[in-house]
Amino acid sequence: MDDRQFRTAMGKFATGVTVITTELDGDVHGMTANAFMSVSLDPKLVVISIGEKAKILNKIKEGKIFSVNILAADQQELSMIFAGQIKEPREVVFDRLDGKPVLAGACAQVACEVSTEHVEGDHTLFIGKVTDIHLEEKEPLVFVNGKYRALAGIS
Ligand code: FAD
Ligand code: NAD
């Protein structure tokens, strides 16, 4: 099985889009990620999966905190910025939730402390203990078949 076939298959699974944000020594860093899942209600846990080459990996390992920003349909540009799909540097203003950096205008901001981490293949899974949540009434951005989409109503 080649990598393209695997990615094409995984791309059939429609997801939302998040930007994972973290901070180390006063430096805020973000990365676009769709490998995100709710894990447990009691205690409240989520999981993210970060590739071994991502610069954010060591920042989360050392800082032991991250936020998951579930992007709204009008935030595709932010997804592209934090995936390196827009090359020119852009200034992004970060808000704070429970002291952790978050993106204004996201559908949901989920602040987490790292509970455990597991290296699996070429990614590290971080289990995050949720410390605070902020919600906004907005439609989510969708990613499927390698493309951004917005939800369409079913009539
Ligand atoms: P960099 O390449 O340094 O950062 C990424 C971009 O964010 C750079 O352009 C940088 O300028 C910008 N940036 C970072 N911090 C700031 C800041 N403070 N202010 C302004 N700009 C900033 N990879 C995974 O490992 N797991 C996933 O689940 C995942 N899902 C993805 C889902 C989608 C829809 C897409 C498009 C990509 C996904 N990726 C995922 C790939 C990942 O987003 C890219 O490989 C990313 O470029 C790696 O980021 P990095 O940490 O190496 O940091
Ligand atoms: P794509 O066709 O590469 O991605 C489709 C799906 O394949 C993704 O939703 C994800 O589920 C899976 N996938 C892709 N790359 C992966 C990886 N390195 N490890 C594990 N799963 C992976 O879509 P695209 O538009 O070409 O993606 C843009 C870039 O973002 C690519 O470089 C891609 O590798 C990267 N990406 C990485 C991940 C990840 O690391 N988990 C997830 C999505 C996209």
Describe, in plain words, how this protein is organized in 3D.
It is a single chain. With 155 residues, the chain is mainly beta. It has one domain (3-150): Roll (Pnp Oxidase, Chain A). The protein is 15% helix and 49% strand. The strands form three sheets. Strands 3-2-6-9-10-5-4 form a seven-stranded antiparallel beta sheet. Strands 1-11-12 form a three-stranded antiparallel beta sheet, with no helix packed on it. The chain has a two-stranded antiparallel sheet with strand order 7-8. The structure holds flavin-adenine dinucleotide and nicotinamide-adenine-dinucleotide. Flavin-adenine dinucleotide (FAD) is lined by residues 17, 28-35, 49-51, 54-56, 81-84, 89-90, 92, 143.
Identify the bound ligands: flavin-adenine dinucleotide, nicotinamide-adenine-dinucleotide
Order of helices and strands: HEEEEEHEHEEEEEE
Q: What is the name of the CATH superfamily? A: Electron Transport, Fmn-binding Protein, Chain A
**CATH architecture term:** Roll
Radius of gyration: 15 Å
Question: Topology of this protein?
Answer:
Blueprint: H1 3-10, E1 15-16, E2 18-24, E3 27-33, E4 36-40, E5 45-51, H2 56-63, E6 65-70, H3 76-82, E7 94-97, E8 100-103, E9 108-120, E10 123-135, E11 141-144, E12 147-150
Antiparallel strand pairs: 1-11, 2-3, 2-6, 4-5, 5-10, 6-9, 7-8, 9-10, 11-12
The structure holds flavin-adenine dinucleotide (FAD) and nicotinamide-adenine-dinucleotide (NAD).
